[in-house]
Specification:
single chain; mainly alpha; Arc Repressor Mutant, subunit A; 65% helix
Length: 149
């Protein structure tokens, strides 16, 4: 049973669908994920955003710059730390968020169709365990460690 292969297929399929559907909003290559996280966490710094999404800093910087160039977000100087720039969603980003959220709700409904509430709860609980396990590995490798297979 290759569960991770199925998870990968699901993730790539949903990402591809979203990239196609959000192209008309100037959101491509997974930028919608960044926009949602910034919307949900106003004032987040880019480094924390990268950690949250589980991408390297360069990838996050590229996506954030594109969102800023397209008017979805703005960077503001932190009052606490002059080196930090906090990220906030603009009015354009706030107007786009409901579209992304509707797609998320719809895709969740499609993905979980035919499952009972109890099955959905158990599935979510199991996925959280997998997510936490993999997040730990991501942190370990990100710090320069090598996994022993």
């Amino acid at each position: 049973m290759d569960i991770l292969r199925s998870i990968g297929i699901i993730a790539r399929s949903l990402d591809s669908i979203s990239n196609i559907e959000f192209k008309e909003y100037d959101l491509t290559k997974g930028q919608y994920i960044y926009l949602v996280r910034i919307y949900e966490n106003p004032g987040i710094i880019q480094e924390k955003l990268a950690e949250m999404i589980k991408v390297d800093r360069t990838t996050a910087a590229r996506a954030v710059r594109k969102l800023e160039d397209n008017g979805f977000i703005v960077r503001k100087q932190s009052k606490d730390n002059k080196k930090e720039k906090k990220l906030f969603v603009t009015d354009k980003g706030k107007e786009t968020y409901p579209v992304i959220n509707r797609e998320d709700i719809y895709s969740n409904g499609v993905a979980l169709k035919g499952m009972t509430q109890e099955e959905k709860k158990q599935f979510f609980k199991s996925l959280k365990v997998v997510e936490n396990n993999i997040s730990g590995e991501w942190e370990y490798v990100k710090k320069g460690n090598k996994r022993i297979y």
